[in-house]
Amino acid sequence: MSKSFKVLVLCTGNSARSILGEMLFKHLGRGRIEAYSAGSKPGGVVNPVAIETLQKHGVPCAGARSKSWDEFAVPPAPTIDFIFTVCGNAAQETCPVWPGHPSTAHWGIPDPAHVEPMEARREAFEEAYQSLKQRIEAFLALPLETMTPQESALAARRIHTGD
Fold first, then answer.
1. Which domain holds residue 41?
2. Which of 78, 101, 152, 162 has minimal Cβ neighbours within 10 Å of its Cβ?
3. Could you give the number of structural domains in the chain?
4. Alpha helices in the chain (DSSP H)
5. Domain harbouring 16, CATH code
């Protein structure tokens, strides 16, 4: 049986982009990935358009909830292998010291949550979904089991920049 990797997707509010990332990693990882999401200042509510977008694509989203990154910084939190920040604010904030010193990468995605009118918001969520899906598929195609943490972090950063 191959190793299961633990991924944490971070954003400030943990209501939209990080939720999309968590659910996509779970779905596309097919057991190879245990995914979580969190925020530095969680709003406490998952954006309903995030759920709508995931459901539209057949991605299960049971258990989706907005939560603080503090849950993952202290025991009994799982030891995270990879952390992805998906918003600029979270990438620039002082993060907790994560147990296990996971590899990190920033995958900035424009915030779809406040786009108006609603039809434009749905389009923005679709764009965020597609961007994350493309990056996650590329990351999952890597031979993570044989890569060092430094190699996987560099590869994740290259996926974001398109190098």
1. 5-161
2. 162
3. 1
4. 17-29, 48-56, 88-92, 118-140, 149-161
5. 3.40.50.2300
